[in-house]
Write a structure and sequence with these properties.
The structure holds 2 protein chains of 2 kinds. By secondary structure, chain A is an all-alpha fold. In chain A, 67% of the residues lie in helices and 0% in strands. Chain A is built from 3 helices and no strands. In chain A, helix 2 packs antiparallel against helix 3. The two termini of chain A are 47 Å apart. Chain B is mainly alpha-helical. Chain B has one domain. Chain B is 63% helix and 6% strand. Chain B has 11 helices and 7 strands. In chain B, the strands form 3 sheets. Chain B has a 3-stranded antiparallel beta sheet, with no helix packed on it. The chains are: A mainly alpha, B mainly alpha. The interface between A and B is large, with 60 and 76 residues.
């Protein structure tokens, strides 16, 4: 039910805006914002490779984080065994992290 | 039927609270920045000469956004361009479904849990909502077909990637201490007392986790000093090609997210709706004094406590925004990957060590 109400709110807001606002299209007005300069190239061009590297790192580390969640919830039942097991797991994670750092993948130049 | 009615009332209360506070924050941010910078701030809107410290600016802004011309650039992907603010706003609101506003309210033999959705994985739901929320700004940036907007969208997505990991790991300590992902159980367990005096709040058991969560949370809500996706003095941001109510939704999303982060900070680290020494039957102080209260008063006091905590954190986030300058992009990435992430992992190991030693 919350989903419907949350869906409805922006829809109503946008509809109300559509009913109230003036509609005056104009060619020059509809150009993308470039501080008055004619856009030379398409905006959706190639991105810096840094973005991809960070995205791949994110996938790796985020999946590892997800593995930690169930462990954290039942931590009191696992006691010492769970702690050592997770140290091994985190050790692998930290090793990979140091490797990535040394490789310079975290440097943003 | 009664169930549906109760659910509707709960939704109305929560959404009413969130949206009104968000609207109020649009005013508070301008007024607070003015006070910090020794200006007067918004005070021009008036009804019959009545100005009320500029509070009418909220209504004036809403009217202005509703009546502004809608502007979709020629280069835009029309459908995605229209859907992006909707996605942002919708998922930001979804996060509030699992925030507990109280324990249970007993009316006429009926037990009403005071949260919209009783989920045992509450915090993962909020993670999902916030991760999906970022699609709004990325799609907005990409679909606009403007260089500035594209840059803003790319920056937003990578900032989200970098900080979400530290954000998630910084919370692990909390779940190790309180053994649950259910936000209500986390709050309930924070009602215990440490050594009979100190409330067992998250800030006491996880001080480092709190700082990490606060920093990463600010980055995720794209607020100053982490507002590079917006960067209004350089690239204006992913919503540069938006006008009217579509921009209004992005604007409001910003404040809804601020409230969501404040609510999370209050719930996870400051005891949520718990007041120190307030038990279900009244106050019970550690020095032996008691002050019994009836059920409704207790529920009401708890709700007020949570609201005050949320308002306090909103104030804190706004104050931070007007105190610190924006980071440079490489500083931002360094902070996320080289400082917050290792500290968060160290926090997890430290928490595990302490918990094992206590046992």
């Amino acid at each position: 039910m919350f989903i419907f109400v949350a869906l409805l709110l922006p829809v109503v807001a946008l509809l109300a805006g559509r009913l109230l606002r003036p509609q005056m299209g104009h060619d020059t007005k509809l150009r993308p914002y470039e501080c008055g300069v004619e856009p030379e190239t398409d905006a959706r061009e190639r991105y810096s490779v840094r973005y991809y590297i960070i995205a791949i790192l994110f996938v790796i580390f985020d999946v590892e984080t997800i593995f930690l969640f169930p462990w954290a919830v039942i931590y009191d039942k696992l006691a010492l065994f769970g702690f050592i097991e997770m140290l091994v797991f985190l050790g692998i994670l930290i090793f990979g992290y140091i490797y990535v750092w040394k490789k310079g993948a975290l440097e943003w130049v | 039927m009664a169930e549906a009615g109760i659910a509707l009332i709960k939704i109305a209360v929560v959404l009413g609270f969130v949206l009104n506070l968000a609207a109020l924050l649009t005013w508070a941010e301008r007024k607070q920045s003015a006070v910090i910078q020794d200006r007067i701030g918004a005070n021009r809107a008036s009804v019959f000469g009545l100005r009320l410290f500029g509070l009418f600016h909220i209504a004036a802004d809403a009217l202005k956004m509703l009546t502004k011309e809608d502007h979709v650039p020629q280069t835009a992907e029309k459908f995605i361009h229209g859907a992006a603010p909707f996605i942002s706003f919708f998922f930001a609101l979804m996060g509030f479904a699992v925030i507990p506003f109280g324990d249970v309210l007993r009316v006429g033999g009926r037990e009403i849990p005071l949260r919209i959705l009783d989920l045992n994985i509450g915090i993962l739901f909020i993670f999902a909502a916030i991760a999906l929320e970022i699609y709004g700004s990325v799609l907005a940036g990409w679909s606009s077909g403007s260089h500035y907007a594209t840059l803003g969208g790319m920056r937003g997505s990578v900032q989200m990637f970098s900080y979400e990991i530290a954000w998630g790991v910084s919370l692990l300590g909390i779940f190790m201490v309180y053994d649950s992902l259910d936000l209500n159980r986390v709050v309930l367990r924070q009602g215990d007392l440490l050594w009979g005096v100190l409330p067992k709040w998250g800030i006491v058991t996880q001080p480092l986790g709190f700082l990490l969560f606060l920093a990463a949370g600010m980055a995720i809500t794209k607020r100053v000093p982490f507002d590079l996706p917006e960067g209004e003095s350089e690239i204006i941001g992913y919503f540069v090609e938006y006008s009217g109510m579509k921009f209004g939704l992005f604007f409001l999303t910003d404040f809804v997210l601020t409230i969501l982060i404040s609510a999370l900070l209050a719930t996870l680290f400051f005891g949520g709706y718990q007041l120190p020494y307030l038990e279900p039957d009244g106050f019970r102080f550690p020095w032996g004094a008691t002050w019994s209260l009836d059920h409704y008063t207790v529920v009401f006091l708890q709700f007020v406590a949570l609201v005050l905590k949320i308002v306090f954190f909103c104030w804190l986030l706004l104050a931070v925004r007007w105190t610190y300058p924006r980071f440079r992009y490489d500083q931002l990435m360094d902070l996320g990957w080289k400082v917050l992430f290792p500290l968060a992992v160290a926090n997890v190991i430290l928490t595990g060590l302490v918990l094992t030693l206590i046992e």
